[in-house]
Design a protein that fits this description.
single chain; 317 residues; mainly alpha; DNA polymerase, domain 1; hpI Integrase, Chain A; 2 domains; two-stranded antiparallel sheet; 2 strands; 51% helix; elongated
Length: 317
């Protein structure tokens, strides 16, 4: 690590350029980082620390800044936005081998009044996954939908738009026990890669082997075969299907496809996956959106998925 002779505030513009050029973050995200770092810059100026160098930043400075934020009548969530931006700046220093505090020295405030995240524990997820009657094709479809949702963390709108030709059944049958990568188009038309575990692939194979139609949609409505255009299943149908199985198994009736997405992210977090990785899995353009899951240490995307979210801890029927 090298000591920089340039003040912390003078590094902010370089950090924002790094976010744009090297990290490829959206313009809105970069603007947010700039906005969320402004209070720290103003605080340094007020404390006559405008010339503070990166290696001179101490935990005492961080504590005093957090104390300042807590006394400013800001909501806890807003305080966390400021802290996340500062932590990202420290991560930039680490990336550039500039001596400073490690980013994990900044802890987020507990937000009792913030947005509540509804998720199911692993045993409840297991009950939900095992709910469909797999003796018929509709039940196999439902099981495959639930397995794919929990394996990938897909938004329900992303899931219903999956095409059948994205899944090569012959290749899957010949390469069992391997994961599958799919490219999906998320919010804002931003593509990302999601990973299907061998467990999800297993149920996709069983479902597709029972399909006797030529519809291009991966998941279809089984009720009306007279439809000439695609019978692609709707998001509402999936929402209703999940509610049906939750009632059947005594699970919270407030459970939605997004609850499964939250459960996916929470499961990864509990297994030691870092916030940045979860951000990429979920397709969040802004890390602030992902901060509700809390920060832990980083690992590589695919290795993390294979190691911690293969579905091996769930029963299989």
């Amino acid at each position: 690590m090298k000591k920089s002779n340039k003040a912390i505030v003078k590094h902010i513009s370089s950090f924002l350029e790094y976010c744009e050029v090297e990290k490829g973050l959206a313009n809105l995200t970069i603007k947010n980082y700039h906005r969320f770092l402004s209070p720290f810059e103003a605080w340094l100026t007020k404390q006559k620390l405008f010339k503070l160098l990166p290696h001179e930043l101490s935990q005492k400075h961080i504590w005093d800044y957090r104390l300042h934020l807590s006394r400013s009548n800001l909501q806890k969530s807003t305080q966390n936005y400021y802290l996340i931006a500062l932590r990202s700046l420290l991560a930039y220093f680490a990336e550039k081998d500039i001596s400073s505090l490690p980013p994990d020295k900044i802890k987020l405030s507990k937000n009792k009044d913030g947005k509540k995240i509804n998720f199911l524990s692993l045993d409840k997820i297991e009950k939900l996954l095992l709910a469909p009657n797999i003796k018929n094709v509709a039940g196999l479809r439902d099981r495959a939908i639930l397995e794919v949702l929990f394996s990938t963390g897909l938004r329900v709108a992303e899931l219903v738009n999956l095409d059948r030709d994205q899944i090569n059944l012959e290749v899957l049958n010949n390469n069992k026990n391997k994961d599958l990568e799919l490219v999906v188009i998320g919010k804002g038309n931003h593509p990302r890669t999601v990973y299907l575990s061998d467990r999800a692939i297993h149920w996709l194979i069983k479902y597709l082997e029972k399909r006797d139609d030529n519809d291009s949609a991966l998941f279809i409505n089984m009720m009306n075969r007279k439809i000439v255009v695609s019978r692609q299943i709707s998001t509402r149908s999936i929402e209703n299907m999940i509610k049906k199985y939750c009632k059947m198994k005594g699970l919270p009736i407030t459970t939605t496809p997004h609850t499964i997405r939250h459960s996916y992210a929470t499961d990864l977090l509990e297994q030691g996956v870092d916030l940045r990785t979860i951000q990429e899995f979920l397709g969040h353009r802004n890390l602030v959106t992902t901060q509700i899951y809390t920060h832990v240490t980083s690992k590589h995307l695919r290795d993390v998925h294979r190691a911690f979210h293969s579905g091996g801890r769930l029963k299989n029927e």
